[in-house]
Amino acid sequence: MSHLAWPEPETAPHQPWRGVVAGVEALVVVGLGVVAWWLWDRGTPLSSPVEGRPDLLFHGFDGPWVAGAVGAAALAGLVLVDAVRQAVLAVRTRPGAA
């Protein structure tokens, strides 16, 4: 039986092309944020005020639009976490080289 061990990584942790990936993902996060904002705005229309009570304003919630906004915001958060990871991997050096 051979000795089992973790394989040595064949590529260096410092990979500058990951910086480009992080930049593209940052643009995707901004785009998803705009989409989430737009969906939320469409899903929460302001209803007409009650007659005789102009101080009362009601917000209605339209389920599919609000769900889309929450989904877009959640996806933006996940992509943001990966963008940070890619940025760290783009600039990280080996422990012995630092």
TrEMBL record:
Transmembrane segments: 20-40, 65-84
Name of the protein described by the UniProt record: ABC transporter permease
Keywords: Membrane, Transmembrane, Transmembrane helix
UniProt keyword Transmembrane present: yes
